[in-house]
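Proteins fold reproducibly. Next comes a concrete instance:

***
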Amino acid sequence: DATALVLDTLTNSTGGPELPPKELAVWMKKRQGVNRWLSVKGINDVNLCQKPWNEGPYGRERQGYGKDGVLANRLNADASLTMMAGISLGAWHKTADQKIMFDLLRREPGDPKDAQASDFIGGVLPKGWRLWSKAGWTSKVRNDVALIESPAGKRHVLVVLTRGYSEDVTLVPRLARAALRACLPSDFRD
């Protein structure tokens, strides 16, 4: 609900009944503002202008998906990495906003009370590592993008995207562990 409210507010394109074609085109242009902003930041080939749904869109929100859902949200690893790195480097915002973002993304690695910290990349981090992450899972995907920081202060961004394995809670941590062992072998030994 919070994401939907932010999207509505940023784009001035609230939901409602279906619209005739001319009005729908105006509504769609407003909603696509998110993608235009991302494109200015160098993030392309994504669609991040649809609200998350529990039971599916209706009215103009459904129209906004286009024929056969061709305008459904889509994200790729490059875009995920670019966004997290941009947050880490303060490339898109003021220093005060960076602190707010870090506070929202901060996780305690392995915390069993926080699925995003234990069932995803954070679940494989050694003691002393820091974690900022955003996991996402639906009936089709199980994904995570994480900024991790070693005890020595070295930062890395890791993205794990899956499709068709949303119920497998072990897959993202297994893939993360394998990637970290390959990229940072001295920090991630057996």
Notes: The two ends are 41 Å apart (CA to CA). The chain has a mean pLDDT of 92. The CA atoms of residues 181 and 190 lie 9 Å apart. The chain has eight helices and four strands.
